[in-house]
């Protein structure tokens, strides 16, 4: 997407009165004003990780029920430290990953290039590995990584019993369990357990602060005090010992206060939104019903035609439907991801059907 196209889309979305998927973009000035919700702006900034950063670490450790948590500027860095720790402790350079996971798809195989680790795939199915697949691994592994939810498979989760069994199977073969929990915040309704109960199944858990809860950046790695001590050393070595990160810490704290309690409501409404979207001609959603407040949607039209229709509806009627359409392996069938957040709570199934008809009326296939 060109810079001009992106700016046009952001301007159109910002001006909309109704938004089905996503949230209204904010300016830098608005984000600065929002920081006051995360803490005392008259207090002192952090100095290499104390102050509000330390407050955030303590809050995450409390939420996840772990001994400690360590702030990282990026999730990529946090995950590298978690895998390196596992390899150092077990002596095994192989980690069990999913080919659709963050570590393989989005982090440019940093675990291999920076730490000399290699991966094995317990499964290539579009879901996290089962206990049986972990038990059947043909070689020793230091860490089994489970992504909650598995984003590139459609934000899918195992059931609680399946997740608990997978964790037990990993430990039975002598491996650590690491949860790639960038979006763990939205996983609690489907798993029907608290954040601390979920994290208790893992030896380490990574969480993101800009995904789901709306911080501007940052992540944390949670686990034992021994892991935390190791993480602080390697965070420094990787270049993550940043002088001041209070803006990220304050917006994360604000998100934990404001957004985290609303996520169950988002997940419930996502089921209503998904069911209404499936009524559109040729539409398909997955998973059905959604496991989180995000899911995938397919329509039988070219991606460009759908993106053009979204923009036209937004600019002319101030209504944002669903954007970010991409082509698929099936010609003429496009896919996108739907995110149900605060703006979508105002939409009824009838609203979606009515606006969906207007949206499709603007689609011009070429």
From TrEMBL:
One of its GO terms (cellular component) is cytosol. The keyword Transferase does not apply. It comes from the Bacteria. GO terms for molecular function: L-allo-threonine aldolase activity. Pfam families: Beta_elim_lyase (PF01212). The keyword Membrane does not apply. It comes from Micromonospora cremea. Belongs to the threonine aldolase family. This is Threonine aldolase. Keywords: Pyridoxal phosphate. One of its GO terms (biological process) is L-threonine catabolic process. Residues 27-288 form the Aromatic amino acid beta-eliminating lyase/threonine aldolase domain. Its cofactor is pyridoxal 5'-phosphate.
